[in-house]
Amino acid sequence: QVQLVESGGGLVQAGDSLRLSCAASGRTFSSYVMGWLRQAPGKEREFVAAITWSSGSTYYADSVKGRFTISKDNAENTVYLQMNSLKPEDTAVYYCAARSIYLSKYDYWGQGTQVTVSS
C-alpha cells in the first residue's frame, strides 16, 4: 500500500524559511514523478513543484521559482520542498503527490501539511 506522509509545516513570518518532507513507501517510485501541490482557502489546488525520481529533473510554478527548491533522497525515499523567502500568499495546505511518468494525473496523495505565513 502506497503511503505519502508529509511533515514540516507550521506558522512562520514573511521572509522566513520552511522545509517540507514527504516520506514515500509501499512501492518503487523509480518511474514516478513526485510533486508538491497546494490549496489555499477558497482556491483551487495548484501545482508548486515536481521532480522526476529517476532523472532528478525538476519543475516549478512561476510563483515559486527562485524561492522554492524540490529535492529527493533516494536512500530515505523522501522528497523535500525547501521554501525560502516565504510570502503570505504561500499560505496553504501543501500536499505531496505521486504520478507515473506516463500519466498526467497524480495517483497517490499525502494527507497534507499546513503552512501559514504571517505578514
Describe this structure in words.
With 119 residues, the protein is an all-beta fold. The chain contains no helices and 11 strands. It has strands at residues 3-7, 10-13, 18-25, 32-39, 46-52, 58-60, 68-73, 78-83, 92-100, 108-109, 113-118. Strands 2, 4, 5, 6, 9, 10 and 11 form a 7-stranded mixed β-sheet that branches. A hairpin with a 4-residue loop joins strand 7 and strand 8 (78-83). It is globular, with a radius of gyration of 13 Å. The termini are far apart. 33% of the residues are buried. The mean pLDDT is 96.
Brief summary:
This protein has 119 residues and is mainly β.
Task: Offer a few descriptive terms.
about 120 residues; seven-stranded mixed sheet
Query: End-to-end span in angstroms?
Result: 40 Å
Question: How many runs of DSSP E, i.e. beta strands?
Answer: 11
Range of strand content: over 45%
- The outline comes out as globular
Gyration radius from CA atoms, angstroms: 13 Å
What class would the helix/strand composition place it in? mainly beta
* Low-confidence runs: none
The biggest sheet, with number of strands, parallel, antiparallel or mixed sense and barrel status, is: 7 strands, mixed
Q: Secondary-structure map with pairings?
A:
Blueprint: E1 3-7, E2 10-13, E3 18-25, E4 32-39, E5 46-52, E6 58-60, E7 68-73, E8 78-83, E9 92-100, E10 108-109, E11 113-118
Parallel strand pairs: 2-11
Antiparallel strand pairs: 1-3, 3-8, 4-5, 4-9, 5-6, 7-8, 9-10, 9-11
